[in-house]
Amino acid sequence: MEHCAPWEDQQHPQYWEKATDDIFYRREVYKRLLQRVLHIYNQSETVGKAAEILTQEWEKEGYAQHLKSFLERYCVNSLHSQLYYGKEFLLRTDIPKLHVTHKVRADGNVTLRCWALEFYHTEITLTWQRDGNNQTLDMEVIETRPAGDGTFQKWAAVVVLPGEEQRYTCHVNHEGLPEPLTLRWGKGWKRAQSLSQ
């Protein structure tokens, strides 16, 4: 088994051997369990009866208690371990890389797209303004999504009339930024005076 969290390199090699063995063991347990469930459902006329049979078997064999113990102990301890080893990584703040793209549409209008890339923590706000007025109803926004490298990305777009691009500004707020930023097509970005002004 290979990990996908950067802080997992701090774990002892024996940890990974045991984790791999546990996964293979659980795979076999769940495979047998699934086979049993399918068998019971094929033999039973109602779903309720099958559930009743499974519940009785699990309680008789102690499986329900074993599963409860696994969830309450092993899973909770694993989560605490992940948080302990990953604390520094998880609490970091990567500043977003920002830019605005410009694309002429088939109808002659222009799509301005404000991009925020390679940032960490997921909380970020992208809004478009026209002459200082919010355009939230006219924006297309994607949800923040993983970039695949431990960072995130997001964009917000607005469709504008050709020649009016300079009337639009993208406002970005993220905890990694010392203050909110304002971007404009072709002008790069500039620091926002203040969102309250």
UniProtKB/TrEMBL annotation:
Domain Ig-like: 96-184
Compartmental location: Membrane
Name the record gives this protein: Class I histocompatibility antigen, A alpha chain
Family note: Belongs to the MHC class I family.
GO MF annotation, one: peptide antigen binding
GO cellular component, one term: MHC class I protein complex
Function: Involved in the presentation of foreign antigens to the immune system.
SMART domains assigned to the protein according to its UniProt record, in alphabetical order: IGc1 (SM00407)
Organism: Cricetulus griseus
Keyword annotations: Disulfide bond, Glycoprotein, Immunity, Membrane, MHC I, Transmembrane, Transmembrane helix
